[in-house]
Recover the amino acids of this structure.
């Protein structure tokens, strides 16, 4: 095999697009192997001082830079699904709820990744590495919301399934209170000092107490120590093979713009030998569709955008107006239960004062989606307001929402997906944007709704659900996955089992878009583990022949 020396005319050996779970793992592992790496991240860098105190500080919470909102949390609504996702140096880790669970091994037996590798033999070591790097430990701080979940599970006869979540949070040694500062507990002194969690429930609004193990405290921190350059507020808009080579064998040219400039976004150009696209399911689909359509990367498989999954999720909850317990205390997701083999529920909370999400919640309403459900919701609302006007208004007001609410995050391993395309929608003829297609994803899980109703009755609360689920039959998810399916050939996937894009050399996708099944658990640990595996195959920088392209593995 021909071995080329790394061409020093390239700005970088690898450019990684996105600094979330897939991007940070890639950057660190590439730097460890001796590559010169840059990370392009369109979000901002956050510190405990710059994070918002509550999510009413919209300009520091929400990401909509074209209207001067430069936070780290984004909400996008599509015809089939409402998607919550992160955008920052550290990707979704800045806003996520730290819960890192290993999915059941059966998830690898379905979907387009089935049979592409011996997953159950290979993945445990990568899950173990990712868990160690992220500092995963069982939650030691059960808050009132967790105890309420346990009480409701006991009453429903499923108390034995209650468990404390595994979380990426630095917690005080046994018997010591939270808040103390400790020298790097994870990386033998190479990492930053940490403070022990105080159980304020604020993880999803950003940890201001240096306790949450966000990526900028582990993978990305260590990557930067090894010389990786992170270009923040820098959005990649073009990736094209250099020198007219159709397959990228002579590297790539990357064009970026400043993502937070209101006017005159500054354009920059970089060159590199290899690229890792790690812009999250939505970011990667948006970018790759644009690159395919404008002819920069025309060989990308027509499978792009197929089989996007929502983790079969539904967000419901219980509100207890006037609750004597402060349900906002604890770790954002502190515990979980299984109501059946395929349905998993976690106890979630926002910190005191972070009541903005109340604007998206309403009284839980069962029934078939459509007009009948809307009428039933209006009827429920009218009955509740007539019978218990004060109580109902207290349930619907934003004030004290976080103190009084137990959010129930329901996830299922059931199959189901939508497809995404980049199109000009009828309501926005100016620019193309991602749209969803296909069959509707179920907006309610009857057994989960039943559980929420019983839990509410137990504590004198009211069952709640998301307004978009009731009114528009649109489920909400923070776990959007898939769209760049793994496959044996370009006819059935965009990437192979190592994340290599069919049709190109040294071009990878490593993020949630390559996951091929509803995991039924929070996905970030799986994204890290899959990326650890993909990077593990890459040779040391000095041994790279820069000829890495996917194998077509189907033999029949
Ligand atoms: C409120 C909330 C709570 C969550 N809680 C949990 C949890 O407890 N456990 C769990 O496992 N998961 C949780 N998640 C989901 C988790 O955050 C995501 O699954 C995960 O972050 C996805 O990782 P990723 O590598 O695919 O992309 P991300 O982590 O989303 O990173 C992608 C990055 O790419 C950047 N980017 C996109 N396009 C471009 C571009 N063109 N140029 C430059 N940069 C770009 C984005 O700004 C982003 O920072 C939660 C999500 C939310 C929103
Ligand atoms: S509960 Fe509070 S202190 Fe603990 S990790 Fe979350 S935000 Fe940080």
């Amino acid at each position: 095999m021909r071995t080329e020396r790394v061409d020093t005319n390239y700005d970088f050996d690898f450019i990684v697009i996105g600094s979330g779970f897939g991007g940070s793992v890639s950057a660190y592992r590439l730097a460890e192997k001796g590559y010169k790496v840059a990370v392009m991240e369109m979000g901002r860098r956050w510190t405990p001082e710059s994070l918002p105190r509550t999510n009413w500080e919209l300009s520091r919470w929400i990401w909509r830079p074209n209207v001067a909102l430069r936070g780290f949390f984004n909400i996008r609504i599509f015809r089939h699904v409402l998607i919550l996702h992160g955008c920052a140096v550290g990707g979704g880790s800045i806003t996520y709820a730290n819960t890192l669970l290993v999915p059941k091994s059966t998830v690898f037996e379905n979907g387009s990744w089935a049979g592409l590798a011996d997953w159950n033999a290979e993945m445990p070591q990568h899950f173990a590495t990712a868990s160690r790097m992220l500092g995963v430990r069982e939650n030691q701080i059960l808050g009132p919301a967790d105890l309420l979940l346990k009480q409701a599970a006991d009453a429903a006869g499923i108390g034995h399934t209650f468990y404390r979540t595994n979380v990426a949070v630095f917690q005080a040694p046994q018997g010591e209170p939270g808040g103390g500062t400790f020298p790097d507990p994870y990386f033998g002194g190479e990492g930053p000092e940490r403070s022990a969690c105080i159980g304020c429930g604020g993880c999803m609004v950003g940890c201001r107490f240096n306790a949450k193990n966000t990526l900028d405290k582990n993978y990305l921190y260590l990557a930067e120590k090894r010389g990786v350059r992170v270009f923040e507020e820098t959005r990649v808009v073009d990736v094209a093979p250099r020198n007219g080579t159709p397959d990228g064998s002579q590297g790539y040219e990357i064009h970026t713009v400043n993502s937070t400039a209101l006017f005159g976004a500054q354009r920059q150009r970089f060159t590199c030998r290899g690229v890792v696209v790690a812009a999250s399911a939505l970011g990667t689909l948006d970018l790759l569709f644009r690159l395919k359509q404008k002819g920069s990367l025309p060989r990308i498989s027509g499978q792009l955008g197929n089989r996007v999954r929502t983790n079969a999720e539904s967000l419901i909850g219980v509100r207890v107006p006037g609750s004597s317990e402060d349900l906002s205390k604890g770790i954002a997701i502190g515990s979980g239960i299984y109501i059946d083999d395929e349905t998993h529920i976690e106890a979630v909370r926002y910190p005191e004062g972070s009541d903005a999400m109340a604007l998206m919640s309403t009284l839980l309403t069962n029934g078939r989606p459509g007009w009948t459900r809307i009428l039933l919701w209006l009827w429920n609302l009218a009955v509740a307001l007539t019978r218990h006007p004060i109580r109902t208004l207290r349930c619907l007001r934003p004030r004290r929402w976080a103190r009084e609410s137990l959010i129930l995050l329901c996830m299922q391993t059931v199959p189901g997906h939508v497809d995404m395309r980049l199109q000009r929608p009828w309501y926005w003829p100016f620019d193309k944007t991602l749209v969803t297609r296909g069959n509707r994803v179920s907006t309610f899980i009857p057994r989960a709704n039943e559980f929420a109703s019983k839990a509410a009755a137990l504590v004198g609360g009211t069952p709640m659900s998301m307004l978009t689920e009731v009114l528009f039959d649109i489920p909400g998810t923070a776990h959007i996955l898939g769209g760049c399916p793994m496959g044996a050939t370009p006819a059935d996937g965009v990437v192979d089992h190592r994340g290599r894009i069919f049709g190109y050399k040294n071009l990878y996708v490593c993020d949630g878009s390559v996951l091929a099944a509803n995991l039924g658990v929070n996905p970030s640990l799986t994204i890290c583990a899959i990326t650890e595996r993909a990077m593990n195959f890459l040779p040391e920088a000095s041994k790279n022949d820069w000829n890495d392209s996917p194998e077509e593995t189907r033999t029949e």
